[in-house]
Amino acid sequence: MMRGRIVRGVGGFYTVRDAQGEEYVLRARGRFRRERKTPLVGDEVTFTPGSGEEHGWLDEILPRRSECLRPPVANVSLLLVVCAPEPEPDLLLADRLLVRAAGGGMRAALVVNKCDLDPSLAQALSRQYAGAGVPVLGVSAKEGTGLQALGGVMRGELCCLCGQSAVGKSTLLNALCSLELKTGALSEKIRRGRHTTRHAELIERDGFCVLDTPGFSLLELEEGMAPEALRTCYPEFAGREGACRFAPCLHDREPGCAVREAVQAGEISPERYERYRILLTQVRERWKNRYH
After folding, report:
1. pLDDT value at position 51?
2. Residue 97 to residues 82, 113, 117, 211: CA-CA distances in angstroms?
3. pLDDT range class, residue 262, cuts 50, 70, 90
4. Which helix (H) or strand (E) holds 91?
5. Nearby residues of 70 by Cβ (< 8 Å), 6 or more positions away
6. Tag placement on the chain: N or C end, fewer CB within 10 Å?
7. Residue 158 phi/psi, 5° resolution?
8. Across 229-258, average pLDDT
9. CA 240 – CA 242 distance, rounded (Å)
């Protein structure tokens, strides 16, 4: 029995790379389905290699340090949420991803690509996320701006790039790792991205360990998240816990809420707070209907 890491999974077949860089194509044993376990890219596994033309078998998924179901990856230590001036940034999606990171045991950073088009976006987001403990990195894969700083943040981490299509995730990886991944452009008709990355894949090159994932435009929060749990995913709220008049306080419309007072005083970004309230409404609705 050997040990390695899943670097891609397509059509029920999983490619595993061992410590020497050798790759093996495997299938998951039937007990994974019975145990309702799904192997994910990034999983550390034990396996039995195949013989000749026959594929081998995944035997065991080793304990995960973190898990994210969308994008479906495991053991990520740093989630890089990528946005850009074009397509129009979906910051509600970005906040959902940051909530996922907080709930899944991952640190996160916000990467603003295409700063050559509009450098003010990175500056505006730096202000919005100043109290969130989320670094905001302005870069331009086209011009090479900010890539050295981004590379410094990524080295030594198992990173996952995620976000909308056409924000330049694959272009960033090409620039950082001297790759030739296929890239796409915006649809001129609807100004949204065309998907170019079709499945998650682990790339190890030039000292980087990165998961490239498909872009997407919709993301729901985890099933079964209680409304009280959402507030714990916002670091800027943490210092005000216990200062509210009522407990527990969801920091919505409750009188005497210390978080709302901090928003009014300009200590917490009003834009990010309003997106929190949108997510809170969604979480409340799903929690109310969780048994239906």
Report:
1. 85
2. 10, 17, 24, 15
3. very high
4. helix 91-103
5. 100, 216, 219
6. C
7. -90, 105
8. 93
9. 6
213 confidence band (pLDDT: 50, 70, 90): confident
As a whole number of angstroms, the distance between CA 125 and CA 148 comes to 20
The answer to whether 82 and 111 have CB atoms below 8 angstroms apart is yes
Q: What is the distance between the alpha carbons of residues 121 and 79, in angstroms, rounded to a whole number?
A: 20
Q: At residue 21, what are phi and psi to the nearest 5 degrees?
A: 90, 5
The two tokens of residue 172 are 């960033």
Structure tokens at 220: 């729901």
State the chain's mean pLDDT as an integer.
87
How far out from the chain centre does Cα 261 lie? 30
Neighbours of 257 (CB within 10 A): 19
Residue 61 near residue 39 (C-beta atoms within 8 A): yes
Amino acid at 129: Y
Tell me the two tokens of residue 262: 């901090």
Whether the CA torsion 265, 267, 272, 275 is positive or negative: it is negative
Q: Is 175:151 a contact under the CB 8 Å cutoff?
A: no
